[in-house]
Specification:
11 strands; alpha/beta
Length: 271
Amino acid sequence: MSKSHLGHTARKRFGQNFLHDDYVIDRIVSVIHPQNGENLVEIGPGLGALTDPVCERVNALTVVELDRDLAKRLRHHPFHGNKLTIIEQDALTLDFSSLRASMAASDQPLRVFGNLPYNISTPLMFHLFDYATDIKDMHFMLQKEVVNRLAAGPGTRNYGRLSVMAQYYCQVVPVLDVPPEAFNPPPKVDSAVVRLTPHATPPVDLHSVSNLERVCAQAFNQRRKTIRNSLKECISETELNAIGIDATVRAETLSLEEFARIANHISDQQN
């Protein structure tokens, strides 16, 4: 199938796959349910598959687009150009707190959505988690495997660092599966849409987010090892037993609450 769609050739370095299935597009926009007065932000608008129907429902939309040709195209949009605020920047470097502060309704949190380039989806998730207090919700098209990882629970094959950190910051709800043929060019993987809603109150008490990130990274980097071995540089077997954690289990069996208990013990030892 051609990599050209609506006069634009998809660029591999930007991970571009353009959504064109009208039924899927309508369902995604219905799930987002955009309303006037909200601080709506689309990441990677591309050729406007979601941009256009959202703009038909609201008076203003901010879009973040790295591809300068696509940004120019949006800037000269014949119908919706006057509704768009275009930020020509890599979303991985964008300060979403400053973006919110710059908006007319700065007292309102952001509503972020997009068909994300799959090659940056995981680092972008972690970047956005840093701004969870500025965000009301997020709706993203992602590789289905990534959605499965976001939503996975302890003891399952997909459970990992991304699962633990995502669920610390957000309620994770998969909402729609999307087949490859809904895109041009079609990706070699299945896709899915996920809703991420930042928690008003964190689900666990945590002394240091950085320690939770460190524990998860070390534990899942050597996921075939028991945590006694994978975490030996930051906590001993005796300490694990003292806080009620079985040192002989592997990372994929530990709940968010148990990871938080380990991270809090490490924080306490640092003080």
